[in-house]
Amino acid sequence: MRRYERFVALAAVVCLASGCAVGQRKWGSCAVAGGVIGATAGGITGGTLVNNLDDDPSDGERGGAIAGGIVGGGLLGALLGHVMCDPIEEPVVQAPPPPAEAPPPAGTEIGELTGAHFAFDSDDLNSEGEAALGETIALLQKHGDVPVVVAGHTDSVGSDDYNLRLGQRRADTVRDYLVAQGISADRVRAESFGESKPAASNDTAEGRAENRRVEIIVE
Fold it and tell me: Contact 210/196 with Cβ under 8 angstroms?
């Protein structure tokens, strides 16, 4: 009798150690049903075996055989039911991180201020000008290695020397504002082109207004 109980226990241990081809299945109703059926069959088998092996088994031997059959049969039945029809657990696939956004290439204009963003005939940046730089600052913070040039331009009213100095003062103001917002000074260079690079004709008020500008360009 003891040999039978040891055999059942050994079979259960071997099955658990080998995995019994469990794979990646979810434990579910098939394992439960298999366990119930296996326990019932195992209990009956254990009782039958002890009666066949011993003409007059004691109540303890009969109970031990039935208990061993229930345990072993239930375990094996649960594993078989699990392997046969419990659903396979799909592996969780981690979504790849989105590709990093490439920084803007050299020559890209990432910001522009017009004369309306400065006090009249001055390099003082007004509140509208500060607000207009918000997206540029966010872009520079996102791409921490991108260097830029702040280019000051004017219309043709006034002398070349005056316009060159006015363009430089406005470019310096914008550069200083960017640095004050946390952009490294090493990344920002200010340069004036005065009236030498008009974007429109200086023959009209509209054209001159378009020429009074500060551009922020990736270097």
Answer: no
The three-state secondary structure class of 215 is: strand
CB 12 within 8 A of CB 75: yes
Cβ atoms of residues 126 and 119 within 8 Å: yes
> Measured at the alpha carbon of residue 177, what is the angle toward residues 171 and 180, in degrees to the nearest 5?
145
pLDDT digits (tens, 9 = 90+) for 86-109: 666 677 888 888 888 899 999 999
Residues forming a β-bridge with 218: 148
Residues in the chain: 219
Q: Which residues pair with 213 in a beta bridge?
A: 114, 153
Residue 37's pLDDT is what? 78
The alpha helices in 86-217, defined as continuous H runs, are: 127-132, 134-142, 160-180, 205-211
* pTM of this prediction exceeds 0.70: no
Please state, in angstroms and as integers, the Cα–Cα distance from residue 4 to each residue in 18, 60, 73, 79, 204, following that order. 21, 14, 13, 20, 108
Q: Which secondary-structure segment (H or E) carries 122? A: none
Distance CA 96, CA 31 (A): 35
Q: Which residue has the tokens 């981690």?
A: 94
